Amino acid sequence: xxxxxxxxxxxxxxxxxxxxxGGGSTTTNAGAGPAAECDPANSATADACGTVxxxxxxxxxxxxxxxxxxxxxxxxxxxxxxxxxxxQTTRVNFxxxxxxxxxxxxxSVPPGTYVSGxxxxxxxxxxVFVEADGQAKEAIVTDTAGNPLTQIDLRIVLSDRDQLVVxxxxxxxxxxxxxxxxxxxxxxxxTPATAAAEPFIVAEASxxxxxxxxxxxxxxxxxxxxxHYSVEVRPFYDRDGDFGDFTIGVADDTTxxxxxxxxxGADGLAALAMAGAGTPxxxxxxxxxxxxxxTADLVLAGSSVPGADLDAVVGNIISRDGNTLTIRGxxxxxxxxASDWHVHFHDDVVVEVGPDTKVFMDGDPQAQHDIGDLSIxxxxxxxxxxxxxxxDPAAPVIxxxxxxxxxxxxxxxxxxxxxSILPGQADITLYSVDRRQAGIFDFxxxxxxxxxxxxxxxxxxxxxxxxTTKLAVGQPISVRGFPTAFGMAPPDFSGRAVIDxxxxxxxxxxxxxxxGTIAPFLSIGSDGLVLDNSNGDIDARHFIKQGPVLxxxxxxxxDTTIVPRATDRMLFAIRTADSLRLYSxxxxxxxxxTTSLNGATTARxxxxxxxxxxxxxxxxxxxxxxxxxxx
Length: 631
Description:
By secondary structure, the protein is mainly β. It has five domains: 4-207, no CATH class; 213-304, CATH 2.40.50.320; 311-410, CATH 2.40.50.140; 412-500, CATH 2.40.50; 506-629, no CATH class. Helix content is 4%, strand content 50%. The protein contains three helices and 45 strands. The strands form six sheets. Strands 1, 2, 4, 5, 6, 8, 9, 10, 11, 13 and 14 form an eleven-stranded mixed beta sheet that branches. A hairpin with a 4-residue loop joins strand 44 and strand 45. The two termini are 34 Å apart. Residues 1-36 have low confidence and may be disordered.
């Protein structure tokens, strides 16, 4: 992280902005019968309603924790009719949702075409941390003038080709992506750090990024013959409220953990039925695009749910001394009956495990695991008792007793640069583990002797029969899998999936200073945009982030070409001080951009997500936004 991260507040892919703006076309109500027939509060008219499934997610950013209160969310039709789809305040840590989306509400709403709306955020009790030299540092979120944020209303606008059409008895999805990287300029020098915000939330009825969906709620009923169950939705860690009902499908290979015991498929559904209505549950899986049905890959229930009967801590193991683990980047979840029930971020938590600690591994439900498998880097959820917490004023330490509890090992993602490729193995320079710098991890004890401990400069990754043909020496690599059991390295890590960054999402960010530039591109056309990498107005923002590697645009031998991807959904945005135009069609976007850059209007910044081909110096974008300064 640089001393001042600039440019991300400026540009980007926004569908939700501080000022009201246009972008929706005039529409008429859809569905059978007038909207007045639908009253979500009246069971007699429920069949006249449709359902909006609201989910929250986040684009990858540099925040370790970004917790705010979401007070309300309303949607509006083109003729101005509005409906509330968030029944009560909910507290959200957006930094938790880079790789997953969370179902926030399953709201019954009148049929119609919804084109805009408003979300209200409250920063009064915000909890925000950034990373500074490998350590967590508290940050204050301010407006661009430096004033601490309190409550703000942000306007939602949907693309005119991607509006939210709700019909009776059918479900539609609205995904809100709070792009933290695009929304803030972070300065880590002061204490606390500052994060100047221009919040951008991308609102999509057909999300460009398809992510796993997480659904939390209290069990309502189970239908074993139909292989599904339903829940009363409770998003995040909310313990009460009516956020709607949702049905969760179960497959033959769905893994269940019910009250500390593992089951698969129908056996798990039967165990869930035995647990009874009101049992807390968490499910993770994919939402089908065609019919909005949801099938779970993993289900937690009862005491297996973090915070249900036991306290929980979630983070990565950075060191181990015997049976004492240090967890960094930890979110501590108190049990539901705690007097002060709030989820808090703590950079380090000390956890004690023992022979009676149960150990489970995601994706490997049948195998037997024990505390010997808990090694450095491993991402874990620990269930136990934090009543042993001690706070020494000289050296405050949060202690966590899991000797009678459980640990669930999650898929962990490492990133680095390839040193060498051998059959079944890759040697890499390790840059990060789950987005935390490799330098914070103490690999002492990972091997049977000190000379065999994992070495970040030559981190050995078992690739087995995974496809490594696209990997090359000196190129970035990302691997998802699990660290080798403690004391058993090398190899240091067992890969389940190897990612070549030519096929992985990269991020492009460029800025042209506070006044902007009249000529950001050498050419604009249906075949792409050609950046002027030598433009004298380019400021400190001029990088492509490809995994752990930063590519300096100004140091390249040629100018970078940006093209739209050939298939699948896309989203392009142009923002000015008083308008926001969203496009799902590249030619529509290019026509607007060409007209807008008229010699008087300047471009201040641009941000894009996609894939980068370093050899061709071509960035293939599926999301792209440009912010313009009009005279």
